[in-house]
Amino acid sequence: MPYYRVVGEVPRKRHVQFRRPDGGLYAEELMGEEGFSSDSSLLYHRHLPTAIVKVEAVTPANETRLAPNLPLSPRHFRTQELRGTGDLVMGRMPLAGNGDVRLSYATSDQPSELYRNSTGDECVYVQRGSVRFESTYGVIEAGEGDYVVVPTGTIHRWVPNGQVNVLAIEAFGHIRPPKRYLSQHGQFLEHAPYCERDLRAPAEPLIVAGEEVPVLVRTRGGLTRMFFRNHPFDVVGWDGCLYPFAFNINDFEPIVKRTHAPPPVHQTFEGPGFVVCSFCPRPLDYHPEAVPIPYNHHNVDSDEFMFYVGGDYSARQGSGIDVGSISLHPAGFTHGPQPGAVEAVVEAVARGVTTTSELAVMVDTFRPLDLGQGALACEDPGYAWTWAR
């Protein structure tokens, strides 16, 4: 994270005696990245965060195996057709993934159990509904359009307020703001499309009592359920630059040009081997002879995974794309507007249309995406041929 926060009670200096009201010492827990060489936060627990009393292996209910995108083809998945089974963690339906990132869809109204992902950071986009995110750092109330970024190793759970639909982006590494948006010391620069004021983090500690509390832990080796002697939500204070936060897509400030700008202007986060972009309502390109719609393009080094979450998709008219759709345009395929879309948008501009209302989340990966059972279960088999009609 780009800036320092302090929440709750912390001592004046690090690693000095910090005593509970009963005279005992609070237990420190340093959450740090890259072997003490990157961002970290220091949390103060009422009880030992290391005290486990039992462990058990867990077999996931959903099939997580992925299949290559063969024969190579552009794909269209209709998440509207997926029905939730489980919570926002164990009920994730795998859509696509590779060695850098896993993309899943979940819809649920059930609270999840406590969960710790120790394989990498997560970025969970709330497509519909609202949810309370609870963690050792505190609470974040998240709603439609929120990205919730969860650092590796954070014990947390999701408590929906009714039905919630999310896209889960699970990295095998860390998710951060793009480096080009930050100063050498981590402050957002003036040209960045969002800044520190747009980020929401826990504001106060969350204290929950309990004994022999189960926590589901994911590592690269699989799933384990650890039972902690005391509830891990016992942190009285923390400080540092590593913590969960929420950012709403509607706070992204679009960057526009006189002619059409490529997707890097929409970049929101970066991860190992992938980027996350936000396509938001914005003014149309304003050169008098502009073609204000994406040109045909072939990203030779990346697969494009686009989740359509709101608005009107002029470039996709005639393709079947709608709110809730996901398109996958792989490297090896040239993609662009559907036939007739360019002419339709140029005519609309001539009639006085000056803005676009599209809202979408895109993940570009630099290694091919394999396909999950969730995607194959809701695929539109005719999508690949819509450019030839």
TrEMBL record:
Residues 24-248 form the Homogentisate 1,2-dioxygenase N-terminal domain. Homogentisate binds at Y313, H335. The active site is at H260 (proton acceptor). Residues 289-387 form the Homogentisate 1,2-dioxygenase C-terminal domain. The keyword Iron applies. Fe cation binds at H297, E304, H335. The keyword Coiled coil does not apply. Pfam families: HgmA_C (PF04209), HgmA_N (PF20510). Keywords: Dioxygenase, Iron, Metal-binding, Oxidoreductase. Its cofactor is Fe cation. GO terms for biological process: L-phenylalanine catabolic process; tyrosine metabolic process. GO terms for molecular function: homogentisate 1,2-dioxygenase activity; metal ion binding. Belongs to the homogentisate dioxygenase family. This is Homogentisate 1,2-dioxygenase.
